[in-house]
Design brief:
Layout: H1 3-17, E1 27-35, E2 38-48, E3 51-58, H2 67-79, E4 84-88, E5 92-97, E6 108-113, H3 121-124, H4 129-134, H5 136-172, H6 178-204, E7 228-229, E8 241-247, H7 251-259, E9 261-265, E10 273-278, E11 284-294, E12 320-324, E13 330-337, E14 349-352, H8 353-358, H9 363-366
Parallel strand pairs: 3-4, 7-13, 8-10
Antiparallel strand pairs: 1-2, 2-3, 4-5, 5-6, 8-14, 9-12, 10-11, 11-12, 11-13
Helix pairs in contact: 5-6
């Protein structure tokens, strides 16, 4: 397969799957690079905020990716101060670190056999748009290099470390023979070294094949069909914790009715109930439901299950989704109104079930100011 076909059939679809969209300017082809007095064009530049962040150079399917090709793409990265470069022939893909010296083995971050891609997702994710933008790529590479360096130092110093341990053990265990103490010390160092090797292997181990991400759950409830109840009719115990979050009138309510859930919030408590404050023109705590579960803090959008892509706009790393028990969402016939804008909940707040049922206004929940 010629280079042009490798790019068209393999490389470009792969890059698009990793989040680099040519339609939005994330992916530019034949990107100009000036090396000394000579102009060149790198096959692909992966762009972040209008600036190249990764260079990708493609070769023919028959290419063995020789040292000459490696130095070529690294030279492009070096001259433009881009750390990450990629070289591929459609069969293998090498991720390279141009910040490393030319002869350093550390310049090769990883080699991925594309036919094994389903079990090398962790490796290919290093050049996803999400990882590059969040600098997760840099973090993971630094961790790998640190563990490799630690392993190497331990291997080189294994004998001297064992001797030092033996010197410490000897006065503590005077009844042991010298040979037994040395064996014990060597065994201890060996266990430490094996533990470090296993940690290194775990951090660079490819992900196992995963099932496709579940589609959005069909939990929608029509607004007109919501039961309307008074607060005193709600089930709950006086000390139950209620999480109250603010919402925009249109978009926020659409999310609530579509999923019987609320996202995305940065909270630490474990509420039993969830209530929604609807902003102007309503300016009331108008909806409430029982909490089924609160997700752990979510690191990336790919961790969000059951929410459609177009509804992830407000996602930020570390935030969570509050899932309500299906069918528990209610509209209040006696909503809690705001007493002055200062007592409006502009961010997620907690109260107790007792206070929620008894309150006449939001000032009864948090005082005249909603700021904690």
């Amino acid at each position: 397969m010629k280079e042009a076909n490798v790019k068209l059939r393999i490389i470009q679809p792969l890059l698009e799957a990793l989040g680099w969209d040519p339609g939005t300017g994330d992916l530019e082809m034949e990107y100009p690079v000036q090396v000394g007095a000579r102009p060149f064009a790198v096959d692909y530049a992966l762009m972040v905020n209008g600036k190249a962040a990764v260079y990708v150079e493609a070769k023919s399917f028959a290419s063995g990716l020789p040292e000459e090709d490696i130095r070529q793409v690294i030279s492009y990265g070096s001259v433009d101060h881009l750390r990450w470069c990629v070289l591929t022939n459609g069969r293998e893909l090498q991720i390279l670190d141009s910040s490393e010296p030319k002869e350093s083995p550390e310049r090769l971050v990883t080699t991925i056999r594309l036919q094994d891609l389903p079990i090398q997702l962790a490796e290919i994710h290093l050049i996803s748009r999400e990882s590059v933008v969040s600098q997760e790529t840099e973090k993971m590479v630094i961790e790998r290099k640190t563990m490799r360096s630690a392993t190497k130092r331990l291997e080189e110093s294994q004998e001297s470390i064992a001797k030092s341990i033996a010197e410490v053990i000897r006065p503590i265990l005077p009844d042991l023979r010298p040979g037994d103490i040395e064996k014990l010390a060597n065994k201890g160092v060996g266990a430490i070294l094996e533990s470090v090797r296993q940690t290194q292997s775990t951090r660079s181990k490819p992900l196992a094949p995963q099932a496709p991400k579940p589609a959005a759950t069909h939990r929608g409830v029509p607004k007109a069909e919501l039961p309307v109840v008074a607060r005193r009719q709600l089930p709950g115990s006086p000390n139950d914790l209620i999480l109250i979050s603010p919402a925009k009138v249109i978009r926020g309510l659409d999310f609530l009715f579509k999923y019987q859930a609320w996202g995305f919030v940065r909270v630490n408590g474990q509420p039993k109930h969830f209530a929604l404050y609807v902003g102007k023109p309503d300016s009331k705590i108008l909806y409430v439901g029982e909490v089924e579960r609160l997700t752990p803090p979510l690191a990336t959008k790919t961790d969000v299950v059951g929410i459609e892509e177009q509804d992830l706009e407000s996602f930020e790393p570390g935030k969570r989704v509050v899932w309500l028990k299906a069918g528990s969402l209610r509209k209040l016939s006696d909503p809690i109104v705001v007493e002055g804008s200062a007592s409006a909940p502009y961010s997620s707040r907690y109260t107790t079930f007792r206070e929620f049922v008894a309150a006449k206004t939001t000032a009864d929940l948090w005082g005249k100011s909603s700021k904690g």
